[in-house]
Amino acid sequence: MTAIATSVLALAGCASTPAATTAPKTSVSGSIVVDAAASLTGIFDEIATDFKKSHPGVTITFNYGGSSALATSIVSGAPVDLFASASPATMKTVTDANLAKGTPTTFVSNTLEIAVPAGNPGKITGLADFADASKKIAICAPEVPCGAAAVAVFAATGIKDKPDTLVPDVKTALTQVSLDEVDAALVYHTDVLAAGSKVQGIAFPEAQKAINNYLIAPISSSKNLALAAAFETFILGKDGTAVLKRAGFTIIG
Question: Which CATH number does the domain housing residue 199 bear?
């Protein structure tokens, strides 16, 4: 995995920063589909519940998954109204196809953290353990943001990682840890918090070498751009960012 080129996470030229304001009530109606990075699972649902309090009757359907797979499906014509990616590189897939409505907004960041099963049976102490072939290790596949971040960290530190499994998204990695199927996985700080007592988190200083920036943009082919834009504004506003901050994200802007 370490032979792969260093992370493209540094690509951030298409980003802008959000305004920290609460979305006004509007007359939007109907339904939208939101594709969002797996690490936003549940968090966007909570924000949607708050949004619906001032916009009763709207329907918001979420597809959560690896950002690269979601971006590919959008480019392939999937009916999506709003996209939230976990890296500039995966958002670039959409912008390069001229499918983003306007300039994507960088709204939060996240950092990697080591997740181990409760009690740490594998006796993991830090990132160097990911080079120990006797440990059972899970890492996200390099094409998804959590995997790209791992590539960048290992390349920067010179650690020769030896994963037993490459998973399609960060939630799969976290599940393997919580089920005690692996000794450790690289996930996001927010995922460790969300898992509660099912896993333990081990922070490591090298994580600062690959911080993930998240971007959001309506999709230009949306059949309900008004609702997509209104929900995006709510996410970027005071109420939405409060939920994101409680989940452990760093707010940008």
Answer: 3.40.190.10
Q: Are 209 and 111 in contact (CB under 8 A)?
A: no
Quick one: tokens of 215? 């971007």
The confidence score (pLDDT) of residue 26 equals 52
Q: Are residues 66 and 89 both part of a single domain? A: yes
End-to-end Cα separation, the chain, in angstroms:
34
Read off the pLDDT of each residue in 153-167 and give the average, rounded to a whole number. 96
pTM: 0.87
DSSP string, 9-52: TT--TT-B-----PPPP----SEEEEEEEGGGTTHHHHHHHHHH
- Taking each helix axis from N to C terminus, what angle separates 88-96 and 67-75, rounded to the nearest 10 degrees? 0
* Residue range 53-77, pLDDT digits in tens: 999 999 999 999 999 999 999 999 9
Q: Are residues 224 and 100 in the same domain?
A: yes
75 domain residue, yes or no: yes
Tell whether 21 is covered by a domain: no
Estimate to the nearest angstrom the gap between the alpha carbon of 175 and the chain centroid: 16
* Domain that includes residue 100, residue range: 31-109+212-251
Beta strands 105-110 and 250-251, pairing class: antiparallel
